[in-house]
Amino acid sequence: MLDVYHEEGRKEIENSPFVAVIADETTDVACEFQLVIVFRYLCKGRPVERFWRFYMLDGHDAKSNAECILNVLQPLLIHSPNKLIAQSYDGASVMSDKNMLKNELQVLYQRDELSTTSEAVSLSILLNEEGLNCTFQETLKLLVILITILMSTSEAERCFSRLKRIKTFLRNTMKEERLGALDMFAEQHFVNGIENFNNKVIENFATKKERRMDLIYRKL
Predict the structure, then answer these.
(1) Cα separations (Å) of 138 from 8, 150, 176, 204?
(2) What residue ranges in the chain does DSSP mark as E strands?
(3) Half-sphere exposure of 123 (CA within 13 A, CB side)
(4) Is the pTM of this model over 0.70?
(5) Residue 80 neighbours by CB distance under 10 Å
(6) Are strands 46-57 and 33-43 parallel, antiparallel or unpaired?
(7) Rounded alpha-carbon distances, angstroms, from residue 175 to 3, 31, 131
(8) Rounded to whole angstroms, how far apart are CA atoms 42 and 20?
(9) Which pLDDT score is estimated for 57?
(10) Residue 87: its pLDDT value, please?
(11) Is 52 helix (H, G, I), strand (E, B) or coil?
């Protein structure tokens, strides 16, 4: 199930123009170092924060954290490394043509339905719904960057609250893969939105290795 969950998450990240990463660490009940990674990006015009997984670290230092985060990011952004932005990011290429952005903003604020919209998310959705995403390309890129930039690490902190409920003293030998898979169930809204999720899980399980019985039914 976690494989299917990650595959659908990869598709969303590939279709998103930008992505931000949230990472935080803690020591669990078994005194093991846990790093949680959460991704923030736009999905269908709205910002989402997807829990990715817990990772057990060998060391409690910056080097161990950096290596783990880079190992997770590399396969996700191998074809588009510039997609990753951070809160301190201030060199956006969309600002290179300042005159174009200035002209778009001037036209935008002349329209009553657009000038009265005060939130970045609402304005981004409105531009897409009105079919103006091609007209206001630079403005839309700027809005997407503002929405994707992280405001806090609250989502990562919530993951640690779930960690305490999952990995208790009675289950303190639980390893990384099972822990991440169990915490995946907290992303119920995302999982429920995956089309044919059950069938995808069954196919993934059946094709992972050779089995005595053919678990995939195929119509002739």
Answers:
(1) 28, 20, 42, 41
(2) 19-27, 33-43, 46-57
(3) 22
(4) no
(5) 14
(6) antiparallel
(7) 16, 13, 48
(8) 10
(9) 80
(10) 39
(11) strand
The pLDDT score that the predictor gives to residue 90 is 28
How far is C-alpha 133 from the geometric centre of its chain's CA atoms? 23
Report d(CA 37, CA 22) in Å as an integer: 6
Distance in angstroms between the alpha carbons of the first and the last residue of the chain: 28
Cα–Cα distance between 58 and 148 in angstroms, integer? 31
Q: Which amino acid is at 2?
A: L
Count of beta carbons in the 10 Å neighbourhood of residue 199? 11
Tens-binned pLDDT, residue by residue, of the chain (220 aa): 888 999 999 999 999 888 888 888 777 666 677 888 889 998 888 888 888 988 888 776 767 777 888 888 888 888 887 788 753 222 233 334 456 666 666 666 566 666 666 677 777 777 777 777 676 777 777 778 777 776 666 777 777 777 877 887 777 778 878 887 788 777 777 888 888 888 888 888 888 777 666 666 655 4
Is 160 in a helix, a strand, or coil? helix
In the prediction, which pLDDT does 10 show? 92
**Sequence-distant (≥ 6) Cβ neighbours of residue 21 within 8 angstroms:** 37, 38, 39, 40, 69, 73, 84, 86
The CA distances from residue 157 to 2, 112, 178, in Å, are 21, 40, 20
Kindly tell me the sign of the dihedral angle through the C-alpha atoms of 12, 189, 158, 145: positive
What are the φ/ψ torsions at residue 37 (nearest 5 degrees)? -125, 130
